[in-house]
Specification:
By secondary structure, the protein is of the alpha/beta class. 44% of the residues lie in helices and 16% in strands. β1 (14-19), α1 (31-40) and β2 form a beta-alpha-beta unit. α2 packs parallel to α4 (89-99), α3 crosses α5 and α7 runs parallel beside α8.
Length: 274
Amino acid sequence: MTRPPAPEPLAVPIYDNHTHLEIKDGEGFTYADALDAAVAAGVAGVIQVGGDVESSEWSAALAAQDRRVLAAVAIHPNEAPGYATAGTLDEALAVIDALAQQPRVRAVGETGLDFFRTGDDGQRAQFTSFEAHIEIAKRHGRALQIHDRDAHEAVVETLLRVGAPDVTVFHCFSGDEHLARIAAEHGWYLSFAGTVTFSNAKNLHAALRVADRSRILVETDAPFLTPAPFRGRPNSPYLTPYTVRFMAEQLGIEADALAAETAENTVRAYGSWD
């Protein structure tokens, strides 16, 4: 499938704070190609995110060798029930705990709750895993990247009950104006993906307009969620400027101004890539 054209680079370098470079989305386009294309489009760095033991180890290793990459490590909520059934969830969490101590692993995630793909029989494992990841993030002073799908109330309840880490990020924010106001009240970050550019995403447009601007981030979640008008085609970090420009239009500000804000917010949340 043809890749979307590269956008005109923004004048201010930005960051993709959530991507999956380990997931191949076609022949002949490697993670190194993706990073080169990102830099050419003005995306100075990415956070490469793991979702199981294997991809978390890969993410940490890539971050250790490539200065354009920081890593996040975790057991994805939809993977947690499988580990629990196999009796290996504690072992997997111990691996995540060890990886989280590496200097270029700056986040624990993506973790959280997903009531869309996992039924009632797997929710106990999701809660157990989520709470363990929160504890790991707090103990090592790492950001927490949350996967929240059809589970807004349960995610918020869990964060308030056990205590959220100092930096808590709702990856691929899918809530509404109400959840955005709750996040602003508690100083949680909202990371907007290509979904915010979809014409039917009125909840995200409203949430963006009331969000705390000092807590707005941008991501691709590549190779998924390609921004409009390229839905259905492969996503990659080099497409991040399309989302930034759409968000700026919604907010009524210049794209370069929003780029500067999101870049500052990203470095505040995760630290420097240097």
